[in-house]
Design a protein that fits this description.
binds adenosine-5'-triphosphate, binds magnesium ion, alpha/beta, Rossmann fold, 7 helices, 6-stranded mixed sheet, globular, 4-stranded mixed sheet
């Protein structure tokens, strides 16, 4: 198995992330080999957000770990701009249990100012919970703290693995809107894993629909003016994603 994490020279409009995972396999505890990703490639333009939608267990989290540089055991290449700061909010919030919310965020982003952190906590509805420890948080609060930690690091590339699960709908909407604003303002590039087409339509410039395992891209839906879509166009795009999604549950 060979993998390469390339670092490209910084260059204006060059893709901040170019991915080609030819093959990713793993062995189960019983020694059985499972193919998780097979022939999946895409490139992200500067300031672009890609959403990944695919059936449960198809390999999305595995791909995100590869993109984050946490898993190098794959065939293929992942190229990122030089000095790109990458931050990931994991599907299961992984906060340090012996540190408060505030400390968790500060440790991940030591250069962030008190004001910046306070603004983030306010935006994510966490102001009252800064002094709490992860064991004292609901899953929804822990998810928000995990998002705060990822955003505080001021990443160039933000990787979000189902960040809105277990948030109540009004809060999820508010955080989605905040994220959309941050992504737009800071020209962040982001990859978002979601099961929710509405999340994808709110945030993404392009939606990649993935097949069942081993994951590959079975179709892409481009969104020309994300975050400002007329209702009819939005409904059309949602229908197209659902059509591709129906294909993704059929065997290849
Ligand atoms: N280290 C591993 N060893 C064996 N199998 C693994 C390993 N890692 C992942 N898998 C298997 O690979 C598949 C993909 O897992 P992954 O967590 O990437 O899926 P996912 O698309 O994120 O699913 P979900 O939508 O439920 O989060 C699963 O069937 C999982 O059991
Ligand atoms: Mg997952």
């Amino acid at each position: 198995m060979s993998s390469r994490l390339n670092v490209m020279p910084p260059a204006g409009e060059r893709a901040p992330l170019a991915v080609s995972v030819v093959r990713k396999a793993a062995r189960t505890a019983k020694g059985q080999k499972v193919e998780i990703i097979a022939g999946l490639a895409f490139a992200l333009r500067a300031g672009e957000t890609a959403a990944l939608i695919g059936p449960s267990g198809c390999g999305k989290t595995t791909l995100m770990r590869i993109l984050a540089g946490l898993d190098g055991a794959f065939e293929g290449t992942v190229s990122r701009s030089a000095n790109a700061r990458v931050a990931m909010a994991f599907q299961e919030p992984r906060l340090l249990p012996w540190r408060s919310v505030e400390e968790n965020v500060r440790l991940a982003a030591p250069e962030s100012s008190l004001e910046e952190r306070a603004a983030l906590f306010a935006a994510l509805g966490l102001s009252e919970h800064q002094a709490h420890y992860p064991g004292e948080l609901s899953l929804g609060l822990a998810r928000r703290a995990s998002l705060a930690r990822a955003l505080a690091a001021k990443p160039d590339l933000l990787l979000l693995d189902e960040p809105f699960v277990s948030l109540d709908p009004p809060l999820a909407r508010a955080i989605r809107a905040d994220l959309a604003r941050l992504i737009g303002e800071k020209r962040l590039s982001a990859v978002l894993v979601t099961h929710d087409v509405e999340d994808a339509l709110d945030l993404a410039d392009v939606i990649y629909v993935l097949s069942a395992r081993p994951a590959r891209i079975i179709g892409e839906v481009r969104i020309d003016s994300p975050r400002a879509l007329p209702a009819a166009a939005r409904a059309g795009l949602a229908a197209e994603v659902e059509r591709l999604r129906a294909l993704s549950t059929k065997p290849a």
